Amino acid sequence: MCTTGRKIGSSEVALLEKMNLKPFFYGMKVVAAYDDGSILGADIVSLSAENILAKFSEGVRNVAAISLVTGIPSEVAVPHLVIDAFKNLAAIGL
Questions:
Q1: What Rg do the C-alpha atoms of the chain give, in angstroms?
Q2: Pick from 10, 36, 42, 48: most CB atoms within 10 A?
Q3: What is the pLDDT along the chain (94 residues), one digit of tens a residue?
């Protein structure tokens, strides 16, 4: 009955009101952003949930790697330390 980009008439509006449907979407499309003297395009500014999760996971991996190399235990490195300790115990047992 309704398609994107096509105007609807009064009969369609009356039918949608009877069915208690509101098929309208209002939003904002980012074209560019201004940051500290530079203009950033929409492709740089818009991030999806997958991109944010990937960046966060990369940061956690970096923190765990630094923690393991320096020998300072941290919350993200504890699972690796426990697994390594188990491997060492299994090697001694064998």
A1: 27
A2: 42
A3: 667 777 878 888 888 888 887 766 677 788 888 888 888 887 777 778 888 899 999 999 999 999 989 988 888 889 888 998 999 999 999 8
